[in-house]
Structure formats: C-alpha cells, structure tokens
Amino acid sequence: MKPCGFLGDPKRACKCAPIAIEKYMSRISGPLLDRIDLHIEVPPVPFEDLSKPGDGTGSAAMREQVFAARAIQTKRFGPGAGGLNGRMTSKQIRAHCVLDAAGQATLKEAMEALGLSARAHDRILRVARTVADLSASETITQDHVAEAIGFRALDRKLWEA
C-alpha cells in the first residue's frame, strides 16, 4: 500500500498503519540521517497567511545576523582558514563547544531518549555553537543546546515510529 502522505499534517489524518509508517521511515538510514545537520518539518501555510504582511525577521536583518556570526567564526578560526562551525573537527568541537552542567544534562537526556549516535552528538554541538554565534553569545547555553536538538526532527520521528 502506498503511503498517504499526511503524517504530521495538521488538517488531514494519516490513515497508514503504524507498521507502514515505521517501514517507510526506516528507508532513511541512520548513518545518512546523522550526516544531515538540520531536519525540520515545514507545515503547509494556510492561504490567508500567504497574503498577510510578515511579522518575522526580514531578509536584511537576517543577512546581518549571518554576517555577524560569520565574523565571529572567522575570529575564532582565523582569517583565510575557511573555518566555519559546520567544518569543525572533533578536536575543535571539544575546544569551542564547551557546555555548562545544564547544557550537558540537556544533551545527555536527548542522546539517551532519542538513541543518538556520536556523530549526531557532534552535529548537535556544531549547530548549538552556530545558534550561540547568531545570538552573539560567547558561551553555549542550555537554550542553544535545546534549539539545536529541536532541529533533529527526523531523529524524533524515527524514534517514535
């Protein structure tokens, strides 16, 4: 039977059997999924919302945030090094992604609850470092770690399936 395509849809119920959902979700291998930093769900936007003026961060403001975060990363890794958080080695992660006790506890809980791999652990730390940079924060807080974990939606879906 072909998947209905409505899993997670706010307006239509998924009619697939749990075993069918699990089988479909298992088509994405764990090792492949580990190599993707951000997996988020983008729900359908109601027609009425498409024509409303946006009240979020504009493109120009977001561009400035990204440039500022890139400047922080250039300072951290040195000019011309091509250093970006996404390219950090394990050694650099240990040096630049130090967590306080609350952040460590949050990450540990997520690792155990979601059954995440060592690769996913490092990916979460890289993303948390970037979230902190976007906030112009020198330290990675528990909130930054929680936000980075939140970007692992497919890990949660596979674990729940």
Description:
The structure is a single chain. The chain is mainly alpha-helical. It has one domain. 57% of the residues lie in helices and 0% in strands. The protein contains 9 helices and no strands. Helix 6 packs parallel to helix 8 and helix 7 packs across helix 8. The relative contact order is 0.14. The mean pLDDT is 86.
Structural class: mainly alpha
Radius of gyration: 18 Å
As for the number of domains, it is: 1
State the order of secondary-structure elements, H for helix, E for strand.
Answer: HHHHHHHHH
Inertia-based shape = globular
Helix content: 55-70%
Q: How confident overall, as mean pLDDT?
A: 86
Number of strands: 0
Poorly predicted runs of 5 or more residues: none
Count of helices?
9
Give the N-to-C terminal Cα separation: 18 Å
For the structure shown, list the relevant keywords:
9 helices; 161 residues; single chain; mainly alpha; globular
Quick structural gist:
With 161 residues, the protein is an all-alpha fold.
Secondary-structure map with pairings?
Layout (H helix, E strand, L loop, with lengths): L17 H8 L4 H5 L12 H4 L8 H19 L12 H7 L4 H14 L3 H17 L7 H9 L2 H8 L1
Helix pairs in contact: 6-8, 7-8
